[in-house]
Write a structure and sequence with these properties.
14 strands
Length: about 325
C-alpha cells in the first residue's frame, strides 16, 4: 500500500513550521541555478538518438595496457601543452551559484543517493535524490549526504532525518531513473513523492522509513551527527548541512549479489551517475587495474632504481 499523500494544508495543520520553509530560496533551487540550458527541452530531446537498450556491460583494456612506471600520462604529453585558468571561489563579483555549477560539472561522475525518510509522527514521508552522497568508511559502514540550505530552511529530507535519526539510501539504476528524477520536484512539505514517482515502498528492519522496492541496492541508516556550514560570501547565512550516517542494514536484489554476498554485479546494478547541469551518465564499460605492490615490482624489475627517489623541490 502506498503511503498516505498528505496535502500541504493537512501537513501545516500538524506542523505549522512547514509554512516557513521556502524551497525557492535555497542555493540549489532551479530558479537560482537554472541548470536547464534549453528553452524547449522536449524539442531538444526529440532530436537525439533513442536510448541504446541493447548496450550491455563490457570489460575493456585500459587505454595503454603496456604502461610502465614513471611513464606519466598516457596521451603522449598532450595534456602538458594545455594551460590552466586559476579561479578564486571568493573573488569579487563571483556568486556562490557559479561555484556550485563549476563543482557539479567538474566533480563527476557522482553517485546518486535516493534518500527516503519519514516524519517523527509517521504522518509524512519524503523521497528525494542527492548527488552529494558518498561512502567514507566500511567498519562501521559510514555514509555522508550533503544538503543545500541550513537548518533554518532545511530540506524536507533533512528535517525528517534530524527528527527521527533514520533514513534509507537507495542507489539509482537505469530502470527507474525517470521516476527518481521526478522525486526532486519542489513539492510542498507533506506531499508524497512516492505517489508522484509511482515507485513502491518496501519494509525495513532497523528503521521505520521505507526502502525503494525498485532499487537493487539499499542501505538502512541511522544518523550519527550533522555539521552546518556558513557562507563566506554572506557571513551569517547558513548554506549547507553535512549528515553523517551509519549503515545498519543492506538490501541487495538476489540476482545482483555473488554467492559470498560481498560483490554486486555492475552489469545488473546498472547505476546512473550525476554529471553537471541536468546531465546524467550511464555505466556501460569498465576496465581492471591491479594495485601495484612496491616490493614485488622491485623484485620483478618493473620498478627501476632511478624511480626510487625522495621528494624533490616542486612535488
Amino acid at each position: 500500500m502506498s503511503p498516505k499523500n498528505f496535502g500541504d494544508d493537512a501537513q501545516r495543520s500538524q506542523d505549522p513550521s512547514a509554512a516557513d520553509h521556502d524551497h525557492s530560496n535555497r542555493l540549489d533551487s532551479e530558479k537560482t541555478i537554472q541548470r536547464n540550458p534549453h528553452p524547449d527541452f522536449k524539442q531538444v530531446e526529440a532530436s537525439r538518438p533513442d536510448w541504446a537498450a541493447s548496450k550491455g556491460w563490457d570489460y575493456t583494456k585500459t587505454k595503454e595496457p603496456g604502461w610502465k612506471l614513471g611513464q606519466g600520462a598516457n596521451d603522449g604529453g598532450q595534456c602538458l601543452e594545455k594551460k590552466h585558468v586559476e579561479i578564486d571561489p571568493y573573488e569579487e563579483g563571483r556568486s556562490p551559484a557559479n561555484n556550485y555549477k563549476l563543482l557539479i560539472s567538474g566533480i563527476i561522475p557522482r553517485p546518486i543517493g535516493f534518500v527516503s525518510t519519514r516524519s517523527e509522527d509517521g504522518a509524512s514521508t519524503n523521497l528525494a535524490p542527492f548527488s552529494y552522497t558518498q561512502v567514507i568508511n566500511h567498519d562501521p559502514p559510514v555514509f555522508i549526504i550533503g544538503y543545500a540550505g541550513g537548518f533554518d530552511n532545511a530540506k524536507d529530507s533533512l528535517r525528517n532525518l534530524t527528527s527521527t535519526g533514520e533514513c534509507v539510501i537507495n542507489i539509482v539504476s537505469e530502470h527507474f531513473i525517470e521516476a527518481a528524477n521526478s522525486a526532486s520536484i519542489n513539492a510542498p512539505y507533506g506531499v508524497s513523492e512516492w505517489v508522484i514517482s509511482g515507485l513502491h515502498p518496501a519494509p525495513c528492519t532497523t528503521v521505520k522509513c521505507s526502502r525503494v522496492k525498485e532499487s537493487i541496492f539499499s542501505i538502512e541508516g541511522k544518523l550519527m551527527e550533522t555539521k552546518e556550514f556558513e557562507s563566506k560570501a554572506t557571513p551569517g547565512k547558513k548554506t549547507g548541512v553535512l549528515a553523517i550516517i551509519e549503515g545498519t542494514r543492506f538490501w541487495v536484489r538476489e540476482d545482483a549479489i555473488n554467492e559470498a554476498r560481498n560483490i554486486i554485479d555492475p552489469g545488473v546494478l546498472r547505476p546512473v551517475a550525476r554529471l553537471g547541469g541536468i546531465t546524467y551518465g550511464r555505466l556501460t564499460e569498465g576496465f581492471e587495474l591491479p594495485r601495484p605492490d612496491f616490493e614485488e615490482m622491485k623484485k620483478d624489475g618493473e620498478l627501476a632504481e632511478e624511480l626510487v627517489k625522495p621528494k624533490i623541490e616542486g612535488q
